[in-house]
Amino acid sequence: MRLLEFQAKELFREYGINLLDSKSSTNIEEGRKHAKELGYPFVIKIQVPVGGRGKAGGIQICQNDDEFELKYPQVMDLIIKGEKARAILLEKMADIKKELYLSIFLNRSKRCYTIIASSDGGVEIESVKNQIIKEIGLGDVSDEIANEVAKEIGLEGKIADGFIDTLKKLSKLTIEKEAELVEINPLAIMQDDAVIALDGKFVTDDNSNFRHNELQKYQEISEIEERAEKSGFSLVELDGNIAVVGNGAGLVMSTLDMLSDNGGKPACFLDVGGGATTESVYEALTLISKMSKVKGILVNIYGGIVKTTIVAEAFLKAYENNLIDLPVFSRLKGIESEKAKEMLQGSRTKIYDSVEEAINAAVMGVKN
Amino acid sequence: MIDIFELLKGKPEDQDYMKKGVIVQGITGVYGSIHTRHMIRDGTNIVAGVTPGKGGQKFEDKVTIYNTMQEAVDATNAKISIIFVPAKFFLGAAKDALEAGIKLLVAIPEHVPIRDTMLTLELAKQKGAIVIGPNTPGIIIPGVIKIGIMPVTPFKAGKIAVLSKSGTLLYEISDVLTTAGFGQLITIGIGGDPVNGTRLIDAFEMIKDIPDLEGLVVVGEIGGDSEEILAQRIIDSGFNKPTVAYIAGRSAPKEKRMGHAGAIVMGTYGSAESKIFMFNKANVPVAKRPTEVPVLLAGKMEKSD
């Protein structure tokens, strides 16, 4: 999961990384209280789990009560890349001399943690110039490496000390919490040469959740996602109107691609996992029935050893129980497919011999 | 460099040539037992199982169960194991296997923490062992040995190597290849995790010089940069056997994990565009859909004739 800025900063604070005073709220009453406590000027920052907040107007300076009353609700109502505000963070204004970039991430191809640092921070990582990249193995960053990085990005004296301190704390945090990515951008040098984290991005390795109860409170999960997780499914909700269901992440991605290529708009990615049973397909249909935007369902099951008749049973049961009244376009590869076709005759589920045919039928059949 | 074919088949003078022994870790679990049954049915020589606390028992009256990998290896001399334990016990099981001298470890579990995978790989490197996975369907030489959870129906012995991050797409694409007359020399499931024991490039190194190899199919997906690295190696090594790729996830939104832990685009890192660009640079055509793979492969074969 990706933490919100204020949550990442809670972890930074716990590990002793320098921060400005800040407070997060979820309504304007709470916000007013924080405004008094912090005092003007401060920055209002929308809390969403995506980047690009500044460009979208999600970060605003407030000089007085009037500005606050105007801007707080404006920022709260923004939707950035499809994400609504989870909270609003008020943070004291900073008197910045320079902005640096610092991150530690799990380098997939090198199989170790890697530091990226630059003296030109404050912009998106793709545009960060003069990047220093250092592989650091699986353990904490040593004094030696921290010193080297500070030197290579041209830091000296008190600023270098502050940077090295931050880097070492960040590495401890990354390793102890098993993060995939921790980023401070910008890492600011203040007028008094203090080094302070102005932003925070933190992506956890969800597979290590069982070792990190302390991170549970940050988990944000919708009812549908929770049910999907319980059944061992993977679900990603999308903007379109055709639900895409299949077994295996690669197969479902491939089906999404082909549907999009043919002008269809996927409403979700739903992977029911390796096998396909009457129960798993029925549960998938149950989840989809809760998404009002769905106008049709595209099913792509590759079962070398799966009996397609047991999948057909799930469709029949779903219609019988009035769970769904949607057309289903399905491709079921497996045994007994002729029998499955017979079973579904007269129902709203059609079985096609190839996924291409099922997709064409879905695109034609679901015209908004 | 370990010769994967020698590990999987043995040498003609070996007593167990073409029937190398395999140990199943977690043999009494739900998945372990189902797939042990299937592997035996499909002709794999399962010589032992390991489940702590169940040593001395037998799996379905056929396979002796041991408490530890050391005991199982001492008794059978096997060099190959397959792990079915739950993800949180994976690291322990993998260490147990590598310490006991296993040289090829097939790691089936999904949801293994990345740190545990990386610690396993560090140990495997010290011990000179190969890890396939985690989150892999396994590895198969059709008609010889299957160490994994794949159905055997899509596969047929032949001369094409298939390397795939995805399980079901591996079956789907092998199936259309088989139907088109392209049997497989070997297929390797790389796995859908961010960190893979055998990366695409490692799998490529294992198979690229096999004289029987007539073509290569790479089934990639969004996330990471292992496809790009492979494409660069294809260019650098001058590999000239017909090669075709398929990349799943072109239409996936950014910063969303698409089912596999590794299938996520961060900025431009891991994007389908980047992978397709590099494959094109390496003169490897990228299929738009699985059924196009054999068509493109046949096209490449004609050109190279």
Automatic annotation (TrEMBL), chain A:
Listed Gene3D superfamilies: ATP-grasp fold, A domain (3.30.1490.20), ATP-grasp fold, B domain (3.30.470.20), Succinyl-CoA synthetase domains (3.40.50.261)
PROSITE patterns on file: ATP_GRASP, SUCCINYL_COA_LIG_3
GO BP annotation list: succinyl-CoA metabolic process; tricarboxylic acid cycle
GO molecular function annotation: ATP binding; metal ion binding; succinate-CoA ligase (ADP-forming) activity
Gene Ontology CC entries for this record: succinate-CoA ligase complex
Listed InterPro entries: ATP-grasp (IPR011761), ATP-grasp_succ-CoA_synth-type (IPR013650), ATP_grasp_subdomain_1 (IPR013815), Succ-CoA_synthase_bsu_CS (IPR017866), SUCC_ACL_C (IPR005811), Succ_CoA_ligase-like_bsu (IPR005809), Succinyl-CoA_synth-like (IPR016102)
Domain ATP-grasp, residue spans: 9-219
Superkingdom of the source species: Archaea
Keywords for the protein's UniProt record, in alphabetical order: ATP-binding, Ligase, Magnesium, Metal-binding, Nucleotide-binding, Tricarboxylic acid cycle
Annotated PANTHER family: SUCCINATE--COA LIGASE [GDP-FORMING] SUBUNIT BETA, MITOCHONDRIAL, SUCCINYL-COA SYNTHETASE BETA CHAIN
Entry protein name: Acetate--CoA ligase family protein
Species in which this protein is naturally found: Marine Group I thaumarchaeote
Lineage: Archaea, Nitrososphaerota, Marine Group I
UniProtKB/TrEMBL annotation, chain B:
Residue positions of the active site: H260 (tele-phosphohistidine intermediate)
Keywords: Ligase, Nucleotide-binding, Tricarboxylic acid cycle
GO cellular component: succinate-CoA ligase complex (ADP-forming)
Keyword check for DNA damage: no
UniProt key word tRNA processing: no
Pfam families according to UniProt: CoA_binding (PF02629), Ligase_CoA (PF00549)
Source taxon at top rank: Archaea
SUPFAM superfamilies named in the record: NAD(P)-binding Rossmann-fold domains (SSF51735), Succinyl-CoA synthetase domains (SSF52210)
Residues of the CoA-binding domain: 16-112
GO molecular function: nucleotide binding; succinate-CoA ligase (ADP-forming) activity; succinate-CoA ligase (GDP-forming) activity
GO biological process: tricarboxylic acid cycle
Name of the featured protein: Succinate--CoA ligase subunit alpha
Organism annotation: Marine Group I thaumarchaeote
Organism placement in taxonomy: Archaea, Nitrososphaerota, Marine Group I
